[in-house]
């Protein structure tokens, strides 16, 4: 279970997150929706201990991420692509990650197979396409067989077949009792996979609820989204 | 996470980085190449009956003249263990930086920095253990009995260890500065230019004797012996001052690294 409570983050005088709070529960896929710059990545970065909040807390199973022992076994995450150095091969990247969290070496081959990168395991990451980078990032997230997945824009750069595959993977994770939190600015992808929705605009949560609750009265999720966020205001920030 | 796992992960991360091997190659192969050249020059001067053409005919001194290249290699290693974390990937591949993956896997930042420093010390020591005997052996083989060795084995050992300490401390300072600046440019420009092109620190000693307390000058007697610029700190106190600089910079870097956003 991921709990975000009253998060505040300022960059200078600009308030990036204004008392953001929501939760992602086990057995469900929670989609974190917002335009670019609305505060999705800032929230996820604080949840993963990368950035410090100016107020509020973000907890994983009741504990701050930074206090987790072998965090990759509890939360698998992906932010801005693969996170691999461009001069390193996919296999070497996963191998040091596994070593750092006491994860069995065989998992490296298994996740490379799982994300469809087995034939590119020895290729330097700098030569990867955006979609391959996303797959490697996902492989890293799955490496420690974590109960929770936190993924920032996971379908970015994936082809239609890849998007379909990603949906299946997220549904399976939730069906097995896992917690899935993914951010997206693409409404269409989310509508088919999410159970719960959290909508953020201008650093504030404007609505949370199930997919059915949020889309009641609208033809499509996209219409609901623009009605909630006041059109494309976020895009002009 | 276990300390052993953390160390093994950071070691693996460093040795799978091509830039780290460039640093190791500069130190090992560069030193060997310079030593071969220097030793051949010395040998031919002796054979021609004009040993005064070279500064010193000692095989050990000839080998030790290549020490600055080891310093360059240590700086490269110190920089890349940190700068590789902050280098952006190509925009085609998402443009991310490795520090995100590193801190997600190892959120305890001070332990992470300690592991990186340990790996750096291990690698620089290994490079020295390979380079110093190799260059001394080569110089001995080329010059051999043609000249009298003026450096005793005990002196050679002490200066070899002193040089290793100087390399290690310089590498750690490079790592600390790179972590503070999150740039792979500033530390090498300052440290490599200062140790090989023109020593700004040495020029500063003309303005104030306090410059002898700068890290590079304080540690200079660790390997340059006694026949260099007068003044400054002796080897022992100099080593302590340089070590204190290193500890101070690493501590500041650790405090900043722990507090700031990734």
Written account of the structure:
Chain A: Belongs to the ABC transporter superfamily. Chain A: GO terms for molecular function: ATP binding. Chain A: InterPro entries: AAA+_ATPase (IPR003593), ABC_transporter-like_ATP-bd (IPR003439), P-loop_NTPase (IPR027417). Chain A: Residues 2-227 form the ABC transporter domain. Chain A: Keywords: ATP-binding, Nucleotide-binding, Transport. The complex is a heterodimer of chains A (237) and B (262). Chain A is α/β, with parallel strands linked by helices and 237 residues long. Chain A has two domains: 2-74 and 146-236, P-loop containing nucleotide triphosphate hydrolases (Rossmann fold, 3-Layer(aba) Sandwich), CATH 3.40.50.300; 83-145, no CATH class. Chain A has eight helices and nine strands. Chain A has helices at 40-47, 90-100, 106-114, 130-142, 160-175, 187-191, 211-215, 221-229; strands spanning 2-11, 14-24, 29-33, 55-60, 75-78, 148-152, 179-184, 196-201, 204-210. In chain A, helix 2 crosses helix 3 (106-114) and helix 3 crosses helix 4. The two termini of chain A are 32 Å apart. Chain B is mainly α and 262 residues long. Helix content of chain B is 73%, strand content 0%. Chain B has helices at 3-15, 18-47, 59-64, 67-86, 98-105, 109-143, 153-181, 186-197, 200-204, 215-218, 221-224, 235-259. In chain B, helix 4 (67-86) packs antiparallel against helix 6. Chain B is globular, with a radius of gyration of 20 Å. The model of chain B has no long low-confidence stretch (mean pLDDT 89). The chains are: A alpha/beta (237), B mainly alpha (262). The A-B interface holds A 45, 48-52, 65-72, 77, 79-89, 92-93, 95-97, 99-102, 125-126, 128-130, 132-134, 137, 140, 156-157 and B 1-2, 5-6, 8-10, 12-13, 16-19, 84, 87, 89-90, 92-98, 100-108, 259, 261-262.
Write the layout of secondary structure elements.
The complex is a heterodimer of chains A (237) and B (262).
Chain A: E1 2-11, E2 14-24, E3 29-33, H1 40-47, E4 55-60, E5 75-78, H2 90-100, H3 106-114, H4 130-142, E6 148-152, H5 160-175, E7 179-184, H6 187-191, E8 196-201, E9 204-210, H7 211-215, H8 221-229
Parallel strand pairs in A: 3-7, 3-8, 5-6, 6-7
Antiparallel strand pairs in A: 1-2, 1-4, 8-9
Chain B: H1 3-15, H2 18-47, H3 59-64, H4 67-86, H5 98-105, H6 109-143, H7 153-181, H8 186-197, H9 200-204, H10 215-218, H11 221-224, H12 235-259
Transmembrane segments (chain B): 20-40, 117-143, 163-181, 188-214, 234-257
Keywords (chain B): Membrane, Transmembrane, Transmembrane helix
Protein name (chain B): ABC transporter permease
């Amino acid at each position: 279970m991921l709990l975000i409570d009253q998060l505040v983050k300022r960059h200078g005088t600009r308030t990036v997150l204004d008392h953001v709070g929501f939760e992602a529960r086990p057995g469900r896929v929670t989609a974190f929706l917002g335009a670019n710059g609305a505060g999705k990545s800032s929230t996820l970065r604080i949840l993963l201990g990368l950035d410090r909040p100016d107020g509020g807390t973000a907890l994983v199973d009741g504990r701050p991420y930074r206090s987790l022992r072998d965090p990759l076994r509890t939360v698998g995450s992906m932010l801005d692509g693969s996170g691999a150095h461009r001069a390193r091969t996919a296999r070497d990247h996963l191998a040091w990650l596994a070593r750092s969290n006491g994860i069995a070496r065989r998992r490296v081959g298994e996740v490379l197979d799982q994300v469809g990168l087995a034939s590119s395991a020895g290729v330097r990451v700098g030569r990867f396409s955006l979609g391959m980078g996303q797959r490697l990032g996902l492989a890293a997230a799955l490496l420690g067989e974590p109960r929770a997945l936190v993924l920032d824009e996971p379908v970015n750069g994936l082809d239609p077949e890849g998007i379909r595959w990603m949906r299946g993977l997220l549904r399976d994770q939730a069906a097995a009792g896992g917690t899935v939190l993914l951010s997206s600015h693409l409404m269409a992808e989310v509508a088919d996979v999410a159970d719960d929705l959290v909508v953020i605009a201008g650093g504030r949560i404007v609505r949370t609820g199930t997919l059915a609750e949020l889309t009641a009265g609208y033809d499509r999720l996209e219409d609901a989204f623009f009605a909630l966020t006041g059109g494309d205001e976020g895009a002009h920030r | 996470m276990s300390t052993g796992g953390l160390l093994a992960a950071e070691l693996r991360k460093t040795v799978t980085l091509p830039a780290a091997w460039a640093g190791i190659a500069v130190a090992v192969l560069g030193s060997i190449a310079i030593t071969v050249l220097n030793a051949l020059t010395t040998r031919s001067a002796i054979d021609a009956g004009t040993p005064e053409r070279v500064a010193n005919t000692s095989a050990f001194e000839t080998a030790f003249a290549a020490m600055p290249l080891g310093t360059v290699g240590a700086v490269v290693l110190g920089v890349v263990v940190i700068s590789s974390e902050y280098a952006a990937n190509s925009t085609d591949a998402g443009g991310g930086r490795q520090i995100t993956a590193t801190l997600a896997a190892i959120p305890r930042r001070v332990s992470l920095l300690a592991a990186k420093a340990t790996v750096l010390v291990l690698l620089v020591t290994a490079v020295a253990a390979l380079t110093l005997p190799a260059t001394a052996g080569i110089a001995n083989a080329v010059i051999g009995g043609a000249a009298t060795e003026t450096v005793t084995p005990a002196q050679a050992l002490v200066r070899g260890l002193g040089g290793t300490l100087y390399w290690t401390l310089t590498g750690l300072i490079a790592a600390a500065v790179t972590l503070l600046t999150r740039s792979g440019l500033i530390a090498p420009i300052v440290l490599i230019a200062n140790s090989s092109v023109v020593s700004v620190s040495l020029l500063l000693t003309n303005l104030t004797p306090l410059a002898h307390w700068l890290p590079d000058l304080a540690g200079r007697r660790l390997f340059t012996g006694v026949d260099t610029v007068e003044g400054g700190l002796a080897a022992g106190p100099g080593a302590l001052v340089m070590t204190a600089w290193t500890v101070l910079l690493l501590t500041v870097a650790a405090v900043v690294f722990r507090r700031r956003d990734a």
